């Protein structure tokens, strides 16, 4: 079971890559996805949005040299969680801040389905609860 109300923002300059990532989320039951092509679009949506994004998925190359991505993601209350992919420089390590905000970093050119599933188990409270119930059931049965 997934929380269909989660807001997800995907930022990548390549249309094909944005669509591929969006389809991965769709396969998992998430349809409230906004894809953007330019860093300026991302900044506008995040800064002037009426409610925070539950997850921002961004290609690290988009911000290279023009934005302190780490500072932006950590300090912005409009971003609850983030996945930075294609981070060939490994600019910062994955982290969780007071259990509320998670930032994951990947050197992969594109996230894959398993990686998105793992990410959503930390972002989506319904998936987390379902995982907990499954684990308890397995322990009880076996």
From TrEMBL:
InterPro entries registered for this protein in UniProt: CheY-like_superfamily
Name of the featured protein: Response regulator
Organism: Pseudomonas arsenicoxydans
Superkingdom of this protein's organism: Bacteria
SUPFAM superfamilies tied to this protein: CheY-like (SSF52172)
